[in-house]
Each structure stands twice: as C-alpha cells, then as structure tokens.
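[audit] Reproducing an earlier prediction to check determinism. Same input, same settings, fresh worker. If the tokens differ from the archived copy the diff job will pick it up downstream; this log only records the rerun itself.
[audit] input (335 residues):
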Amino acid sequence: MQPEQTSADSRTAASPQPPTGGTGAADKAARRAVTVFPVLVLAAGALGLALPDAFEGWGTNVPYLLGVVMFCMGLTMTPLDFQGVVKRPWAVALGLVAHYVIMPGLGWLIAHALGLSPQLAAGVILVGCAPSGTASNVVTYLARGDVALSVSVATVSTVLAPLITPPLTLLLAGEYLPVDAGSMVTDIFKTVLLPVIAGLLVRLLFGRYVDRVLGALPWLSALTIAAIVAIVVAGSAEAIKSAAALVFLAVFLHNGLGLALGYGAGKLARLGPPASRAMAFEVGMQNSGLAASLATAHFSPLAALPAAVFSVWHNVSGALVAAWMSYRARRDERP
C-alpha cells in the first residue's frame, strides 16, 4: 500500500525534500537530492576542515543562509499541509509531544552519560530541542510510511519552534552554559518563521511560477546547508581533531535512539505500521541547520559541531532505515 501523499512537502529545513504534490520530475529530483545530500555535506565538512582559513569570518552569514533554506521550505508549502492537523489532531499531538520530549531528553542524558564538555553538551542538547526537519518527509515516503502525518507533525513543530526550542534549551542546557532564551526566540522568529511565511505567501500568490522551479528547490537547500556545515566545521577545525570520535558517538546514539523510540511511541499508541514509521523519522531526524545556526550565534562554533555531524549522519541513517522498513513493508504485504 502506498503512503498517503499531500499537496506539498512541509519543509526543506535541513536537507532537501520532495514537493510531493508537484510534478513527477520534481519528486524524482528531490529523491536524487536526498540521496546525494549526505555526500555533499560530507564533502563540505571535509573542505571546512582542510581549509578553515578560507571560511574565516563567514560565521555571521549562517543565519542568513538558514533563512534561504527556510524560504525554500515555505515555497513547498500550501494550506493543505495544515489539513492533517484538523483531520487527525490526536496523532499530530502525539507526534509533537514525542518529538519535543524524546529528543531533548535524550540529548541531556547522552551529554551526562558521555561526560561531554559544556560546549559540546549544549550543542547536543540544542540539536535535541530543534524542530523536526531535514529529509524526514521524503524518508517517510521512501519507507512506505504515513506521509500526511509526517508533513503535519513537521509543519507544526516548525511553526511552534520559537515558543518551544528556547525554553527547552534553557531548561536542559542552562546548567552548562548561559542561555539567552529571549534572544533565541527572536532569532528563530527571524530566521525560521518569517522566511517560511514569506515563502508560503509567494507560493499562494505566484503558484504557477513556483511550480516550475520546485525541482530546483531541493538542490538549492542542499547546497545552502552544505555551506552552513563547511562554515561550522571550519570554525572549530582544531577542536574536531580531538573531539570527533566522541561527537560522532553522541550523534549516533542520539539519532539511533530517537528513531527507535519514535517508532515505539507510534506502536504503543497503536497508530498502525505506516504512522509508526512516520513517527520514527519525525522524532529521530532534527532540523540540524537551525541547531547549527543557533549554536554558532549563542554559544560557539564548537557547540555547533554536533549539529554539523548530525546533519550528515541522520540522512545516512534515515536512508538506511527507510530501505529496511520499505523491504519489511513489501514483505508483509505479500500474499
């Protein structure tokens, strides 16, 4: 059974996503971009590590680059993306609670368990407090999951981010570093909410023209996020050499446990296999682009390192888990 599709994907926040209501060519372009994205981001990180001086002084551009990505997200949205909230409020509410409880909690636990330095601990926690993002919608589609639920949870979690991410970060990361939650609210509003609303308005007013370029949006998003990763890695190139293994372990645990617990939450709530698969990706995949931007602006380049690593790894793990889930779903559907 194919997953239900909506008129448009909800966001391209931290990696490319398919405009599922667009043309078949646009959908294929998005899937190709998702496949290439981890390699592109890995190459960008290697470039930042090898040539850190080439990106000196670029850190102030990260919020603007994120704004470009969020504007692309708004261009992929239509009012139909919000219908799922009205049709299935219980399932969407469960997805939001699971997302904003499991990932922040895991970030805090992993930071304590691994004895991370204050900067890295705050960075891991900030990744956990970010809204749903990256390629969760397209990965849900490839996993034969409930795309409509995925879109609804992702959309609402992004819209609510200015109200939820700062206080959660203050609560959980405040013991490690000072957190200016008020300033963080303003930054999320400017770099996330305003660009998304602007993109949505452009789509509503000039939909015919936007539809013609939907296939290019995933690539623009991928290139922009790659630039963010290169800048973040370059800013903490020296620290990476001593902390890379520990950061990867933290990211591996954070993402893997998030995927497993998200799926488990869907099963526990008896949402059914397709919705449980969607829950796995909506919980375990984060808007790491936003986390990197906030960490750079409010903490340090080193605190942004977990977000940069997460941006690469969760796309790799998401693709692998989606392939496995798709295989299991096809096998279970055989007579």
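[audit] rerun output stored. Observation attached for the diff report: The radius of gyration is 18 Å.
[audit] end
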